[in-house]
């Protein structure tokens, strides 16, 4: 028996497994590999400029003809942000994105931008039942319930294993996916048994050959345990008041040893930790405590950078091709849910 759910029909995919749009960690190679394997690869976008969006989606489309998604952060801080994000959505769809995954904001202004651009679906990652209900009222096609176990920026404030079934009950029949704390076949099977129609995985795919992560960062993911992760707001330059989960490292330890001082008094604040080049951009200084990811292009020490990671590091035993990860998760979960004999 396969692992097909109604979500697969909704998105035009074979397996209900999504790779999260983790900024530039989730580049064309990763998104395409996940989609080629039957899941939905989601390209990280964040607030990338138009030229970068065109290049990233163009490269992804060179690698696969299967459905792909694009992720956008829809936090609106300034007048004009909504119009800009709607334009980014339209551009992404024009350049080949089939579906749009939104995070960290009200989806209502953006659903129409997707609808007018084509037949693509809108998914929103949420951190509470109330946010899920509001998203459904706004017209999204599916919600991703994110638990506090997740890596990177965390919307959820409770365990995914509590949030997931409550969200499923609250928004049925709208599909719900699980995110946070899921990194192996057992986790996928558990999520589906609680009513999820799919999973969206970030940390598991950082530890893939195709992720554009620094090799030392990938090794830390593989070697870490859940106890090595911390839930904090330390890395806030460029995105304040946004809780996140990272691996404990020198930057965190130095701050903790100093007594966890407030911004403005943290050790080494304002100093470069190295230089980083993002797609379509020149190499620039990366300032301590800034958001961003230690990409393969980073020439500093990852012990000074945010190492986004969720509690699912417990279940990650090694690196591998993203396509093999997708198939292993799906085959393993199917075997657990439909044992033979």
Quick synopsis:
The protein is of the alpha/beta class and about 350 residues long.
Describe the protein's topology.
Layout lengths: L5 H6 L5 E3 L8 H9 L3 E5 L5 H14 L4 E6 L7 H14 L4 E5 L4 H8 L6 E5 L2 H10 L3 E5 L5 E2 L6 H12 L4 E4 L5 H9 L4 E4 L1 H4 L8 H9 L5 E4 L11 E4 L2 H8 L14 E5 L7 E4 L34 H16 L4
Parallel strand pairs: 1-2, 1-9, 2-3, 3-4, 4-5, 5-6, 6-8, 8-9
Antiparallel strand pairs: 7-11, 10-11, 12-13
Find the structural class using helix and strand composition. alpha/beta
Largest sheet: 8 strands, parallel, barrel
Q: How much is the radius of gyration in Å?
A: 19 Å
Overall helicity:
25-40%
CATH architecture of the largest domain: Alpha-Beta Barrel
CATH fold description of the largest domain: TIM Barrel
As a percent range, the share of strand residues is 15-25%
Count of folded domains: 2
Outline type: globular
* Tally of strands: 13
Tell me about this structure.
With 341 residues, this protein is α/β, with parallel strands linked by helices. The protein folds into 2 domains: 6-212 and 316-337, Aldolase class I (TIM Barrel, Alpha-Beta Barrel), CATH 3.20.20.70; 215-312, no CATH class. Helices cover 35% and strands 16% of the residues. The chain has 12 helices and 13 strands. The strands form 3 sheets. It has an 8-stranded parallel β-barrel, surrounded by 7 helices. Helix 4 (81-94) runs parallel beside helix 5 (108-115), helix 6 packs parallel to helix 7 (160-171) and helix 8 packs across helix 12 (322-337). The radius of gyration is 19 Å and the shape is globular. It starts with 5 loop residues before the first helix and ends with a helix.
